[in-house]
Amino acid sequence: MVELMLVAAVGLLIGGIIGSVVPFVPAGLVSLAGVWSYVVFGSQPVGPLAVASLTLAGLAAVVFEHFAGPIAARASGASTEVTVASAVGGALMLFVLGPIGIVVGAVGTVLLLELWRGTDPRQAIRRSLYTAVGVLASTVLQILLTLSILVGFVLFVVV
Fold first, then answer.
1. Do 124 and 46 form a contact (C-beta atoms < 8 A)?
2. Which residues contact 144 (CB under 8 A, 6 or more apart)?
3. How far apart, in whole angstroms, are the C-alpha atoms of residue 152 and residue 130?
4. DSSP-derived secondary structure letter, 75
5. 84 φ, ψ to 5°?
6. 58 and 12 Cβ atoms separated by less than 8 Å
7. What's the pTM value of the predicted model, to 2 decimals?
8. Which segments of the chain are extended strands (E)?
9. Does an H or E element contain 6, and which?
10. What is the pLDDT tens value at each position of the chain, 159 positions in all?
């Protein structure tokens, strides 16, 4: 007979993968909920190395989900103020344009603020493109991390 807590945990882990591409679903946190619900309430013990590695992967997904675009903007040479503003711009535009608003808001904020600050237009465009790549890459990283959490969980717990 299949254990109910195992089914719930795997359901949450699948929800984490889906949450990687669905707005307003915190993919990393949902995956962490799946892991930790089984660690706390499951019938089989999960080793500390497995728990630590799955937890670190979940925390990495959380960080990439929220900060990949601004980190990319900062890596391209944008100031701290522009970086923070890009995170706010992406979050605000999400409510206006939906999921594409995250990209439009973050990239547009970097571009406009860099031009407003007198940055060379080529440099401003380069920095905004870095931001776009960072935002889009964060989705790919979230999918890979949450998928690896599911696979790791199945290997550590089920197999």
1. no
2. none
3. 31
4. H
5. -65, -45
6. no
7. 0.82
8. none
9. helix 4-19
10. 568 999 999 999 999 999 998 877 899 999 999 999 999 999 889 999 999 999 999 999 998 888 887 888 888 888 889 988 988 998 899 889 888 888 899 999 999 999 999 999 999 999 999 989 988 888 899 999 999 999 999 999 988
